[in-house]
Amino acid sequence: MSYDIIEKLKKEIEGFKDEAEFKNVGLVTETADGIAKITGLPNTLSQEILTIETKSGDVSALASNLEEASIGTIILGDYEKVKIGDRVRQTGKVLSIKVGDELIGRVVDPLGNPLDNKGSIFKNPEKAPNYPLEKTAPSVIDRESVKVPVHTGLKAIDAMIPIGRGQRELIIGDRSTGKTAIALDVILNQAQDPGRPQIICVYVAIGQKNSKIAKIVKTLEDAGAMKYTVVVSAPASAPASLQYLAPFTGCAIGEYFMDKSKDALVIYDDLSKHAQSYRELSLLLRRPPGREAYPGDIFYLHSRLLERAAKLSKEKGGGSLTALPIIETQLGDVSAYIPTNVISITDGQIYLESSLFYQGLRPAVNVGLSVSRVGSSAQTKAMKKVAGRLRLELAQFRELQAFVQFASDLDENTKKKIDRGERLTEILKQNDREPTSFEKQVVILYAGINGYLDDIPKNRIKEFETKFTDYLEKIHREKILSLIEKSNELTEEAEKNLKNALEEFKRIFT
Amino acid sequence: MKYRAENYAESLSRALTKHPNKSDVLTKNFARLLKKNGDLNLFPKIVENLRVILIKKRGGHRVKIEFAREPEKDQLKRITSVFNSEDVIETYLNPELVAGTRITIDGERELDNSLSRKLHKLFC
Asked: What is d(CA B120, CA B102) in angstroms, rounded to the nearest whole number?
């Protein structure tokens, strides 16, 4: 070890050049709360990394405000080291991180440094490509329409709000309504979707408690999901500058995999806190405040981030980057500034409601208000076959449910519709961290919409579902589940087998 | 509206150029204006900016030479002879340099031949 250190130092001393030359230099004139104002350095680029030479070592800063007489910078390191009069130098580089397959299974900070005590990330850091945090989104020509589904493992979402690879789907709701739980289920489910290429997941935690992030990482590790997941962590204790950069780091990592013709999924948890950290930095940089004191470019901040999600054309490798941004609303107010901005940027939203959550409907998805603008083109044929009727049945049920509260005497047909709706709602309930594979979703939804559950008591629906899928797994795996999984279709043969299996199982069950 | 030191310096410089014979009156008025606006604390910055403007107008540069130790007369003469007569040369003693000199031009360009830079480059 000591030999290595001495050799390294020797090489550095041998290659040391000490010729003095004229260089550009700047001076720190103001510094406070993670922000520094610098004079000099007239050729500085926007988003360039500057090096502040402090008495206790170099500190990096990001050039953000290029003004007439000074530069407003965001300090990326320990800002307490920076003093007025410190000299500043240009690096000529814009902010970027090293990316590579070695990132999979690691927890990193927004600057790409490991946080999981598993040692350095790259064996040869010099060979790892640098990806800029800010990059122009793929052009229209480079894109392709979204066709392949991202199966979330949640019946309510996969059936009625399908998400495609390359789509941007917002998860929005009040605090404690299960937004992160949905995101985690999506990650966990990627291990059980063998019909499609493996999705590499990037989970970006912004402004969350360290304990919550540790719990999420533990959950992913226990489920074996870290084999295809990268976690970018900027907890609440991190400076606003790192919280602001975290989603861009996650996006850059996702883009690396997309450029390698793979499918990637980035979860931004959450963009409300990201907007708050950007507001903090902007106010400290003395940019004019706008609505809710957010700066004027807050829309552009999120649109340029989310526009980078894309399904690339075959000529560009055919990779994809799916984005699942999360927004936390206050008392269900979706018309606030940041929620409306992100709703308008994304290709649909999954709206979670506290009232549904407390009624025991989990995931608490409000199916009426949730949409996916990509629609059924990101669904398998098998799912399309059952999902169309499911949406209709549930819509009728919701309408009748409101009506029933006032009417006491109901005709037979209405009663049937309400009973069916209640059973379908029961089917859509799912526990945390128990995502259902797509073929199992298809069979149970098929049973529900075709009336096979109408005579099963409501409180036994869950039991029926568990036992029936177990039964299919053990006895009819090849004839039904594997057929659906391989062909992505509910073929006549599979449907016939499924009908027989349902009738047979019902005899045993009842 | 709050004015910046650069605005004050620029306006004073223009006024002095327009009325070169009234410098006494203009200076007094300028001091009154600063007092009225409550900007007397900006005075050192204004003077600094005014110096820069005047030097630029003359076509020169502001040269700041820092020495780690008191320079010898010959050494100082040799260094200052490199610059033009329009340039304003300021010399300072800065023991933080450890050894050598550092020359900064207009606060933007720098020739750092100090030992502190070499040590910094080696270890940081």
From this structure: 14
A57 interfaces chain B, CB cutoff of 8 Å: yes
Tokens of B56: 């630029």
DSSP assignment string, A29-66? EEEETTEEEEEE-TTPPTTEEEEEEETTEEEEEEEEEE
Under an 8 A CB cutoff, do B118 and A18 touch? yes
Of the candidates A508, A480, A477, A475, the residue with the CA atom closest to the CA atom of residue A494: A480
Are the C-beta atoms of residues A274 and A206 closer than 8 Å to each other? yes
Is residue A53 less than 8 Å (CB to CB) from chain B?
A: yes
Classify residue B24 as exposed, middle or buried by CB count within 10 Å of its CB (0-12, 13-18, 19+): exposed
Contact A27 B107 (CB under 8 A): yes
| Res A216: pLDDT | 97
> What is the pTM for the complete model shown?
0.89
ω into residue A270 within 30 of 0, thus cis?
yes
Peptide bond preceding A363 in cis form (omega within 30 of 0): yes
Active site residue A373: yes
Amino acid letter, A83: K
For residues A261 and A319, the answer to whether their CB atoms sit within 8 Å is yes
Q: Which two tokens stand for residue A100?
A: 């590579």
Beta bridge partners of A348: A372
Evaluate whether A238 touches A266 at the Cβ level (below 8 Å). no
The ipTM value here is 0.78
Q: pLDDT tens digits for A93-113? A: 999 999 999 999 999 999 999
Residue B6 at interface with chain A, using a CB cutoff of 8 Å: yes
> Which of A286, A291, A373, A477 is an active site residue?
A373
Q: Which tokens is A469 given? A: 């899928």
B113 with A20: Cβ contact below 8 A: yes
Judged by CB atoms closer than 8 Å, whether chains meet at A25 and B6 is answered as no
% residues pLDDT > 70 (chain A):
98
Per DSSP (E only), the strands in A120-188 are 130-132, 170-173
Query: Which residues in chain A are closer than 8 Å to B109, comparing Cβ atoms?
Result: 22-25
Beta strands in A208-337 (DSSP E): 229-234, 263-269, 310-311, 320-328
Would an 8 Å CB–CB cutoff place B108 in contact with chain A? Answer: yes
Spell out which residues of chain B touch residue A20, defining contact as CB-CB under 8 Å. 111-113, 117
User: What residues of chain A lie within 8 A of the CB of B107, using their CB?
Assistant: 25, 27, 39-40
CA–CA distance, B49 with A86 (Å, rounded to integer): 20
